[in-house]
């Protein structure tokens, strides 16, 4: 069993909620985080557990979530959200590599606490830095990416964001800034 589990459920009104749990070995705590996708979640920590108890705690959590109608989402049930920075040089500079690391760090944290997805990878292509995110709600993820990177003061004016279905990354369409001027290219 994994040492981390994130599951989702869509309510009758269409609202997507999530639950996640993990064992924090450093503190001996079992952590449960839950909320409505796109909103800051609520966290509950229970301490005093040893690492040998973690698999049983996660199994019990998974069982309760399944009973409540929560399921793990397959990648194909999610969408790609690509945060793209325009760079001054073809290969990127040390400053651009710092931007890559910092942007991935703040995005991973911001998205995780809102159930909005994960940072999957990044790449430098000529004159661009692409950061690939996988999200169950791309509309809310686009808003979260803009908010997160603006608040972190990470070159927001050089940012574009595109969205594509998981299986059709080549069908990516620009969602920020709007209206789109030209095509959104990953190359």
Automatic annotation (TrEMBL):
It comes from the Bacteria. This is WGR domain-containing protein. It comes from Arthrobacter hankyongi.
